[in-house]
Amino acid sequence: MSPQVSPAMEQRNRASSLNATVETGIAVRSKIWMPYGDIILQVVSTQFRVNRDVLAKHSSVFRDLFSVPQPVNEPTTDGCHTVQLYDNADDWAELLAVLYEPFQRRSRPQFNTLAAMLRLGKKYDFLQPQQDAVSRIRYEFPSDFKAFNDLEADMTKIKYRRGIYCDLLNLAFECGIYSSVPLLAFCCLRENTLEALFEGVERDDDSRVTFSGELKINLALAFGKMALFQHRVLCWLRNDSVVPGRSCPSATRCTQQRNAMACVVDRDHGGQFNLGYTIDQWDERWTGMLCPVCEETAVAFYELNRAKGWELLPTFFGLAGWKDLKDDVDEFSTPCYAGFYDC
């Protein structure tokens, strides 16, 4: 039988896990240095002077920490006790900027901000920042087919840049948002060549996003599976099984146009499969190429296979089906992607 732990002892254990001691060495003050702050967070060697009540309001971990009496003889800086943390200082700079400057953060957050809200939100129970970040990722990369169909062409909840899909895929695995992994992985394959995914995808600042060896293998295998699936479901572009239809008034013309539609697919990605045809909506370049009768039939057939592609999407990446993909995050009922300060 496990020994009983009192609530007071549990609080002290949580507080000690934050290691409220200052290591020797030179600490650098960050730009976030509140003149009326009453606590200093030292993240490795970077210090942030902030307010206990702000941290306690948003984080149950810090709320518990501050409820434990501080040692009387503990050294202070500018009259403030110091809490030593072993995280990424840039993550803390991003999260604290969100907490202290919410009105400047109303637009789509950049990846670094989103990642900080998610990582630190999960670790220290900053509930609203975490919920906001999770909501944005789930919105842009849903596990529901209807929600996917309702998405706009460009991301509206997260700021786009080169390599964003790859960064988000790594983040989703890191923080347990597994329901968004299939669509994120698909977007990585659709936007990048396998060569780029293996060597590292460039960001806007010319740095590169890299994947683990296991993930690279899974992406390569998924590419092959989706290419085969797409080849099968697009066979109608290369035979008479769908177009021209029995009621087609211009069979010769529609046959020629169907062949031209196949050429559109072949030209994409330098002759390689454009994997977008696995789940993306009807190609607008095809609209009007066939007679109305054949186009209606072709669209219906395409949509049927697109729905099949969506159902199979997780399995292409070696994952469980959509219904069995569970996120490792606390569930919440209200989407917060308008900004956690509006929740």
From TrEMBL:
It comes from Mycena metata. Residues 37-100 form the BTB domain. This is BTB domain-containing protein.
